[in-house]
Amino acid sequence: QVRLVESGGGLVQPGGSLRLSCAASGDTLDYYAIGWFRQAPGKEREGVSCISSSGDTTYYTGSVAGRFAISRDNAKNTVYLQMNSLKSEDTAVYYCATVICTRVAGPTGADFGSWGQGTQVTVSS
């Protein structure tokens, strides 16, 4: 079973950027699609982005489209989420997980056993 660990979060001002990392252990990421999720206080967990095992298929939820970019480096066993033009509404704990990834539905069928502790992203002036 693959285990994933998130990192790269922090405190940034509105308009700033962060790059989150999702690193795998216990197995390689070559055959897994990966999704990014976030949960803010008082709000439901939402799927933010996902990428297929090959990298050919990606998805972004409407609120982050054009600002975030997902990528993967299978040689490094890592998936990244580049976040630009950050807004206060992006403040949340971000998680990654193995998923099914489609352009329409985004990340679904998340394997909760692969989730880590998440990484906190805070956007504030």
Salient structural properties:
single chain, 125 residues, mainly beta, seven-stranded mixed sheet, four-stranded antiparallel sheet, 0% helix, globular
Describe this structure in words.
The chain has 125 residues and is mainly β. 0% of the residues lie in helices and 50% in strands. It contains no helices and eleven strands. The strands form two sheets. Strands 2, 4, 5, 6, 9, 10 and 11 form a seven-stranded mixed sheet that branches. The radius of gyration is 13 Å and the shape is globular. The mean pLDDT is 94.
Helix content: under 10%
What does the main sheet amount to?
Answer: 7 strands, mixed
Q: In DSSP terms, counting alpha (H) and pi (I) runs of 4 or more, how many helices?
A: 0
What Rg, in angstroms, do the CA atoms define?
Answer: 13 Å
From the helix content, strand content and strand pairing, which structural class follows? mainly beta
- What is the CA-CA span between the terminal residues? 40 Å
Sum this structure up briefly.
The chain has 125 residues and is mostly beta strands. The chain is built from no helices and 11 strands.
Chart the SSEs and their pairings.
Blueprint: E1 3-7, E2 10-12, E3 18-25, E4 33-39, E5 46-51, E6 58-60, E7 68-73, E8 78-83, E9 92-102, E10 106-108, E11 119-123
Parallel strand pairs: 2-11
Antiparallel strand pairs: 1-3, 3-8, 4-5, 4-9, 5-6, 7-8, 9-10, 9-11
